[in-house]
Specification:
Elements lengths: L3 E2 L2 H12 L4 E3 L6 E5 L3 H11 L8 E3 L6 H4 L5 H10 L4 E6 L6 H4 L4 E5 L4 H10 L3 E2 L14 H8 L5 E4 L10 E4 L6 E4 L5 H8 L30 E4 L4 H10 L4 E5 L10 E5 L4 H16 L5 E5 L8 H10 L1 E2 L9
Parallel strand pairs: 1-8, 2-8, 4-6, 5-9, 11-14, 11-15, 12-13, 12-14
Antiparallel strand pairs: 2-3, 3-7, 4-7, 5-6, 9-10
Helix pairs in contact: 1-6
Bound molecules: threonylcarbamoyladenylate (TXA) and magnesium ion (MG).
The site of magnesium ion has 4 residues, from loops.
Length: 335
């Protein structure tokens, strides 16, 4: 499916398609979403099929305004209102207890529902024109890298989608921060552009932040080990280990793609080098597009220089942890 420029006519048409139960991919500030009418279980079933996603994985319902929280959540806690006031529209999704009428198809069978008001003019115009909630996972096939450009959606989904609205490259580049507000204490389910500190400052209380080694029992595919992964084997290494590693692999005749951060390694016949920006926001914005680019180069291995492991880099490191194996792990034997 070829993307179409998201002008007013295209958006009106896209809203009509959603009303007919069809699938529309659209830009948000984080990544492109694959949208379906959240009130139509058949449309939602089609969405799972197009993505190849297991039916028990819940979706985020996208809404046009804060008032819509009450259409989906059985109760809207004060914490949710505070966070929505501060961060919506924006890259924050909240998990709340669902109203009985919210289809279980959307929530993966759970009694909670994910809600987010995206900060993108096309997404907001589509939501307003459609008038209801749009269930939208990232518009990639299950376990693949999320799309941050309309062309990525075409590559991922082909004709499994009825329309792709092109709104340019996404500005944030990694998926929203997810906070679970359905229990007694707020909990981080997925790190994103909005940081733990920013959330805690608004809530005036600490967030439960699961450690990477202690996965929660909550079903969130974004928290699985292998996710957002390129098909080329990819490993991340501290800068000081990279020159040796590259020398060794190049001597073995391997074709390598290097995603460098600070390290200056000259490209060669066997080593393709893509340099990442030093600023975390720019790095995140480029990350998925660059991984896709490297993945298309028919390389034997992608090497990635480990960026800082500090708090502002939490979301980037979380995604890198899912896209790559650590340097210490033995290389795949097929290499
Ligand atoms: O930035 C984003 O959130 C993008 C754009 C398109 O808005 N959407 C996105 O959707 O990343 P998806 O489906 O790829 O990831 C949604 C995440 C999943 O990890 C899912 O498990 C979690 O949200 N989620 C949704 N509803 C949930 C619920 N009721 N309980 C726990 N996790 C939930
Ligand atoms: Mg996703």
């Amino acid at each position: 499916m070829k993307p179409v420029v998201a002008d007013a006519d295209a958006i009106t048409h896209a809203a009509d398609l959603l009303r007919q139960g069809r699938l529309v991919a659209f830009p948000t500030e984080t990544v492109y979403g694959l949208g379906a009418d959240a009130d139509n279980p058949d449309a939602v079933a089609g969405l799972f099929k197009a993505k190849g996603r297991p039916a028990d994985h819940p979706l985020i319902v996208h809404v046009a305004n804060i008032e819509s929280l009450g259409d989906w959540a059985s109760t809207v806690p004060e914490t949710a209102l505070k966070l929505a006031d501060r961060f919506w529209p924006g890259p924050l999704a909240m998990i709340l207890n669902k109203k009985p009428e919210v289809p279980l198809a959307v929530t993966g069978g759970q009694q909670t529902v994910g809600l987010r008001m995206p900060d993108h003019p096309v997404a907001l115009a589509l939501l307003r024109s459609f008038g209801g909630g749009i269930a939208a996972p990232s518009a990639n096939r299950f376990c693949r890298i999320s799309p941050t450009q309309a062309a990525h959606v075409s590559e991922e989904l082909g004709d499994a989608v009825d329309m792709i609205l092109d709104g340019g490259a996404c500005q944030v580049g990694v998926e929203s921060t997810i906070i679970d507000l359905s229990g007694s204490k707020p909990r981080l389910l997925r790190p994103g552009h909005i940081t733990v500190q920013e959330i805690e400052a608004v809530l005036q209380t600490g967030l439960i932040v699961p450690s990477a080694s202690k996965p929660t029992e909550i079903r969130a595919p974004g928290m699985m080990d292998v996710h957002y992964a390129p098909t080329t084997p990819a490993i991340r290494c501290p800068a000081e280990q990279l020159p040796d590693k590259i020398r060794q692999l190049a001597a073995d005749g391997k074709k390598i793609g290097l995603l460098s951060y600070r390290l200056d390694i000259p490209p060669s016949g066997q080593v393709r080098v893509l340099r990442m920006p030093e600023q975390v926001g720019d790095y995140a914005q480029r990350l998925y597009a660059v991984l896709r680019e490297l993945d298309s180069m028919q390389l034997d291995l992608i090497l990635l220089e480990q960026p800082p492991q500090t708090e502002p880099w939490r979301a980037v490191n979380d995604r890198l942890g899912k896209a790559t194996a650590p340097c210490s792990r033995p290389l795949p034997t097929s290499l």
